[in-house]
Each structure stands twice: as structure tokens, then as C-alpha cells.
UniProtKB/TrEMBL annotation, chains A, B:
GO terms for biological process: tyrosine biosynthetic process. Residues 2-281 form the Prephenate/arogenate dehydrogenase domain. This is Prephenate dehydrogenase. GO terms for molecular function: NAD+ binding; prephenate dehydrogenase (NAD+) activity; prephenate dehydrogenase (NADP+) activity.
Length: 281, 281
């Protein structure tokens, strides 16, 4: 492993490079970001050693860590001119459309569809942290479609980063992520909006906010440049999850409206089993 | 200050006693919990020095730290037989109904309506922590209705605990709390429910959950015995907040449905200003 090229020098791309440089200092990192300030920051923070629009032909791995809607075209272009020993992998939060776009590409075997389950509400290279990916899940889709030899390059770095590999198909991935990740972001953004709307009457309302609100609304700080494209790329599954969520909220509202507090209690009690599930991890 | 009696030896009552015992070790704490296991735990954890159903007549402060729907009757009964130098204060999350129930009580001046903005998703005496209340906001309602001399007893202990006093009227309190606290709990519980429902198809869905989901769903671990009564006591304001939330979610869903991702982006960008507001604190 000698050379890695990272496209998109933000939170994920930056954290990946910072972590790997500690473990494999011999690797040269090149990279590129359409935001020139981010690219300059990535250079000065030591995320990349050299800024380059195109990966060298002897690059081992090209990592695409850009917003979800830019990936289909970036990935296609990368495969079009990829070196014979180069693997390209992406870090996108949606997988179905991407896998389908490149399914007939002659260099499909050079691609590994990936998704690290890691992040914070912050973005950009300055938010990157060397420990962000440590012991996190890395989902791989359609593993059987990637060349065995090239795939081993990805596994080498992912193992070095202590990441836990999980394999699933792209449709399953997108459906599950709509529920455990994309919906959380929407619920948090809309909670933020509802309280901001209320703030127009009550200027000091945030003084009353405790740690519970801060935790529940945290994801509303996330980057729209990353999240609006996810809504587009995973539209069908997100609409399903969001509709179920709205139905559940409406039923809960009906219980309160009808003074059915025993029903409210029983409902909450059932949901409490999430304690055991989350504490297992 | 010689004696404090705590009714309800859970997270809040327990944390209050543990913290104050460190700062004012001369105070004797008596207390009571309808749950006999909690009461035994509170004794063995040193939250109270002696279990007592009724406060002694020379008690300085009686603290009511029980679920919101039990407070009107507990408060009325406490005032009925209160000692001449005793103040009673409560830690309830709703204030309007409670203040209105005791508004004509001959001993109204012995009562201070309070609400510490502090908590965790855990409950019971074992969840109590001496630093839970440290530097948190303590809301006082209808301060003018409490006897000046008795009120100073409360201020003495709240200041010793480093709590930040805020004064507001009960209606304003309940309306604001519906938005910044009660709604967060509902959004979190219903997020938990939506993912649990989905789990019936996808058993391993929680493997895919990252820190974002964990943070957003954290409040769904909260105690139904505390939270169902809040829905009842603050029905009107909670219905208003919840309805606004559902409308916001439905409008957001419509944008996705209509492929208006620019609208989605702009909406998220506006909500991002919550970053500045929350980081100010």
C-alpha cells in the first residue's frame, strides 16, 4: 500500500486519512475538494500530502467521500480512467442507485460499495478526527462484484482502522438506513424548526432547554450539503420511514386528545425495550 | 437549616439530597417513597437518613419530587398540615394546574412552585448523582405568592447547589416546556417506536445504528411513570407543540415527494442557526 487518493476532504474523508496516516505512515495521500478552502485546510492539517485533481495511475485506493448525489457521476468517471491495480470505494450513505448506475460498467470489479457508520453533526476537514472511524461498522454492499485482489486492499486498511465489516445488499442497506439514520436527522431538524418557530413568540425559550433537548436536536446542526442529497438518493425509503413516523406521532396525539393516558403509558413502556437493545452495543 | 423531607426518592429527589449533603452535612434528610424498594435503596445509598411517611413539624423544607399527576393532591395534603416554619416546594415539570389547585389554599404562602431543568433518561434512586443539578436552571413560578422568609430557605439551598434561578409565570412555563422538553420526549419515543416496528422485518436493523440515532432516541429510555402524567398535566400545550411538529414533518415530506431538494436544502440551512443558539449556552 503506497498511495491513496481522497475526493472530498470533509469530515469522513479527512478522518479516514488522519487515522490511516498514524497507522501506515508510509502511505502517500493525495486528494481533492471542489471547495478550495477545504482543500487548503486539508493540506495544512496534514490530511493530504499533495492536492491533485486526478489520482495517479499507481494509486492503490481512490476514496470518494462527497455528497450522495455527486457520487454516481464521480464514480463513473473514476472507473473510466482507473489504473489496472486501483480500487475505488465510496463512503456514501445511500447505495442502491449508485450500485445500479455502475452495474454494467466494464470496470465494475474495481469498485467497492462502502458506508462507514460514523459521523458527527459537524462537517469539513477541521471537524475530522483520527478516532472517528475507530471500531465503527463499515457496510459493504455487493461484495461479490468486486475483484478479490483489489478488495483485499480495502480490507487491509479497514482492518487497520479497527472497523467492523458488515455485508448486505444495497436495497436492504438503504431501507435500514432510512430508519436508523436518515429519519433521525429529519426528526431532529423538524424538532429544531418547531422550537425556532415558537421562539418568534418566546425569545428566551432556549434558556429553558436542558440536556434532553440538546441531545434530541443535535443532528439539526448537520450539513444540508450532505443531507439534502440523501433525501433525493433515498427518496422511496425515506418517505416510507417518515410516513410511519408521522402516523405514530398522530396516533400518540390522538391518545392524548382522548385522555387515554393509560394507553400513553403502555406505549412508552413498550418502547422502553430500546434500552436493552441500545445498551447491548 | 436543620431538616429537609423529600417525598419521591428518585432521580431528582435523590440527586438533590446527595448534592446538598455534601455542601451542608449538618442537615438531616428524612423522606418517603411509595415504592418500598426505592425507599430502601435511598436509605442504603445515604440519600435519606431516616424513612418517614410524614415530615416532622420542625422540617425546614419539604420537597415533592414525584410524578406530575400526583403533585396536586400531595401538595394540598402537605399544606394542610404544614409546620409554621416549613416551606414546601415541588420539582414538577408542569406548573399551571398545580398553581391553580392551591391558589386559594390558606397556606399558599408556604409553597414555592419550582422546576429544575435537569434529568437523564434513567430513573430511581440508583440513577441519582450529586452533580445532576449543578449549574442547571431552576425555574420558580409565582414567586410573589410565597412568603419572603420561607422563600429565603429555598434560595439558600438552591444557591448552595449553584443553580441558576429563572422566574416566569406558570402558563409561560408550561407552554415553553412543551416545546423544549415535552416534545423532545415524544419525538424520541416515536422515533424509537418507528424503528422497533421496522425491526419486525429486519432483525439486525440496530446493528446499523450509529451515534446519531443513539443521541436522537436517547429520551425514549425515559420512565413512563414520570412522562405519561406530564402528557396529562400539560395536555393543551403539548397538543399545540405536537401538532406543529407533525405539520412541519408533513411539509418536509411533501417537499421530498415533489422532488423539491432545493427547498429541503434551504429549510435545513435555516434550521442550522440552532448551532449558534445552542452553542451560546
Amino acid at each position: 500500500m503506497k498511495k491513496i487518493h481522497v475526493v472530498g476532504l470533509g469530515l469522513l474523508g479527512g478522518s479516514f486519512a488522519l487515522a490511516l496516516k498514524k497507522i501506515m505512515p508510509q502511505i502517500k495521500f493525495t486528494g481533492y475538494d471542489t471547495n478550495s478552502q477545504n482543500q487548503a485546510d486539508a493540506l495544512s492539517l496534514g490530511i493530504i500530502d499533495e492536492a491533485k485533481t486526478e489520482a495517479d495511475l499507481d494509486t492503490d485506493i481512490i476514496v470518494l467521500a462527497t455528497p450522495a448525489d455527486t457520487l454516481p457521476s464521480l464514480l463513473t468517471k473514476a472507473l473510466d480512467k482507473i489504473g489496472s491495480q486501483t480500487l475505488v470505494m465510496d463512503f456514501g450513505s445511500t447505495k442502491s442507485n449508485l450500485c445500479s448506475v455502475v452495474s454494467m460498467h466494464p470496470k465494475r470489479a474495481h469498485y467497492l460499495a462502502g458506508h462507514p457508520i460514523a459521523g458527527t453533526e459537524y462537517s469539513g476537514p477541521k471537524a475530522a478526527k483520527a478516532d472517528l472511524l475507530d471500531r465503527k461498522v463499515f457496510i459493504v454492499c455487493e461484495m461479490e462484484k468486486t475483484d478479490l485482489h483489489l478488495k483485499s486492499k480495502a480490507y487491509e486498511v479497514l482492518e487497520a482502522l479497527n472497523m467492523k465489516l458488515r455485508f448486505m445488499d444495497p436495497e436492504e442497506h438503504d431501507s435500514q438506513l432510512a430508519f436508523v439514520s436518515h429519519l433521525s436527522h429529519i426528526s431532529s431538524f423538524m424538532l429544531g424548526k418547531t422550537v425556532l418557530d415558537k421562539m418568534e413568540d418566546d425569545k428566551n425559550i432556549f434558556d429553558m432547554a436542558g440536556s434532553g433537548f440538546a441531545s434530541t436536536v443535535r443532528l439539526a446542526k448537520s450539513s444540508p450539503a450532505m443531507w439534502a442529497p440523501i433525501m433525493k438518493e433515498n427518496k422511496k425509503n425515506i418517505l416510507e420511514a417518515l410516513s410511519m413516523y408521522i402516523v405514530n406521532l398522530s396516533k400518540f396525539r390522538d391518545r392524548i386528545l382522548e385522555d387515554d393516558y393509560e394507553g400513553v403509558f403502555r406505549e412508552m413502556e413498550k418502547i422502553n425495550k430500546i434500552r436493552d437493545i441500545l445498551d447491548l452495543e
